[in-house]
Automatic annotation (TrEMBL):
The lineage of its organism: Bacteria, Pseudomonadati, Pseudomonadota, Alphaproteobacteria, Rhodobacterales. It comes from the Bacteria. This is DUF1150 domain-containing protein. InterPro entries: DUF1150. It holds the Pfam family DUF1150.
């Protein structure tokens, strides 16, 4: 393969971080909205700001990709 490719032309999608959140760790007003869920998944930007809070991990990844973001898991 002798074809050169200009990787700089590729536009990188911003990375967002998906992490598991215990409902008990959320503020009272948010806990009231999650009902009986015990575990949720948060999507955070690179600065740590929470962008979204969803019911399951798969939904968090789909949400990120639908918004042209590149999700990765935080342990």
């Amino acid at each position: 393969m002798d074809t050169q490719y200009d990787f700089e032309q590729e536009m990188e999608r911003p990375i967002v971080y998906v992490r598991q959140v215990n409902a008990d760790d959320l503020p009272d007003d948010v806990r009231e909205q999650v009902g009986e869920l015990e575990t949720l998944y948060a999507v955070h930007n690179e600065e740590g700001e929470r962008l979204a809070l969803v019911a399951d991990r798969k939904m968090a990844f789909v949400l990120a990709r639908q918004n042209d973001l590149d999700p990765v898991t935080v342990h």
